[in-house]
Amino acid sequence: MSEHATARAAAAGSCSCGETSGLLVPEVATILDVRNETAAGDVKTFRVALDDPAAAWVHRAGQCAMVSVFGVGEAMISITSSPTRGWPLELSIKRMGRVTGALHDAGPGEKIGLRGPYGNHFPTGDWKGKRLVFIAGGIGLAPVRCLIDYCLAHRSDFGPVDIIYGARSPGDLCFKPDIFERWPKEKDTRVHLTVDKGDDEWTGPVGFVPAFLEELGPSPDNAVAITCGPPIMIKFVLQALGRLGYTDDQIVTTLELKMQCGVGKCGRCNIGDKYVCVDGPVFTLSQIKKMPNEF
Ligand SMILES: Cc1cc2nc3c(=O)[nH]c(=O)nc-3n(C[C@H](O)[C@H](O)[C@H](O)COP(=O)(O)OP(=O)(O)OC[C@H]3O[C@@H](n4cnc5c(N)ncnc54)[C@H](O)[C@@H]3O)c2cc1C
Ligand code: FES
Asked: Is the full-model pTM beyond 0.85?
């Protein structure tokens, strides 16, 4: 079990033999409100609070929660609100199948289960004074938004910030108040948006994220690039960053494997000697290159 999971097990009062049953019990939570992120309504942000405030945990940027719909099942979801904002938490969820579909059909006041926080976190302590280049596509902005807000809340710890974000169409851009209003007003922070296909009102750049990134060409000097999005976008973003001169240690991403327990017990998310649910989901490209290519 990772240091993090061991600490969580201890916090949950489980025994030293590695028993993690306490970690698998969800707390009951209430959906406070739901916000549509996209024009098609396929991504929604849920603001949720635990019914027992004493059970509230403190997460770190990059960590996830297992969200359950009673009688339906569970899904691993990144916590999209920054730890600096505390509770209620925000979870941005794309309708994919049974659980996420049931969540999309749920409204304010409905009860869900929450357990967590799970996984490692972005190593922000190693990034003091560095230029931060965030690169995200579609719903991939969800975990990155938590990190961006964390870094902006500690603005003086970091250098210039560039946020490069793309979606299929203007209507698919998530977190519009953040990308259009809030983040561009932050000190030494630039937001660069692109869409695969514009519409009558879109006057911004049109094109895929990797090409847009290369065109913008953020310098790798004293920089860290953090990327999250669909696997095909990540594949080409990694190639573009390499051409821009970023080393594998300067590139951080998240792995999204199917998960079940979330605590390193069921083996569902195993790659080589790693369990993505406890050792990840955040990895540098150097760490990923040392893993067997099983994902
Ligand atoms: C670390 C981590 C963080 C995540 N964060 C978010 C988030 O912030 N917001 C969000 O909307 N989703 C997130 N996901 C994905 C989310 O967990 C899945 O979409 C969800 O479990 C699907 O459950 P379902 O019952 O609705 O779909 P199912 O009925 O189980 O499946 C529907 C379809 O989605 C595919 N699918 C299911 N899970 C995954 C997966 N993990 N990766 C790729 N394809 C999958 C299935 O193969 C199937 O084709 C995250 C996943 C992980 C592992
Ligand atoms: S989800 Fe069970 S070991 Fe990772």
From this structure: yes
